[in-house]
Amino acid sequence: MNCLIRIRQRYAGFAQSDKKLADFLLSQPDHARHLSSQQLASEAGVSQSSVVKFAQKIGFKASRH
Q: Angle CA(57)–CA(60)–CA(65) in degrees, nearest 5?
């Protein structure tokens, strides 16, 4: 399943910081896909740990790169 669809389906249950990140991802998916987690956090106005936790919530496994 496409991650943007997962975000839309789960949006109502997200915490405020998750919604902030979700809004950024949904509004700028082509830009966001090229960002590191640190860059994404900075541009979306959330912490890097919030980005990692959000990714896990929508079904991605954590990785260390």
A: 120
- Buried residues in 20-43 as b, exposed as e (16+ CB within 10 A): bbbebbeeeeeebeebeeeebbee
- The proportion of the chain whose per-residue pLDDT surpasses 90, expressed as a percent, equals 86
Say what the pLDDT of residue 16 is. Answer: 94
Question: Cα separation of 1 and 47, whole Å?
Answer: 26
Q: What is the CA radius of gyration of the chain?
A: 11
How much helix, strand and coil, in percent to the nearest 5, is found in the chain?
A: 70, 0, 30
pLDDT recorded at residue 64: 56
Residues 6+ positions from 58 with CB-CB distance below 8 Å: 3, 6, 7, 10
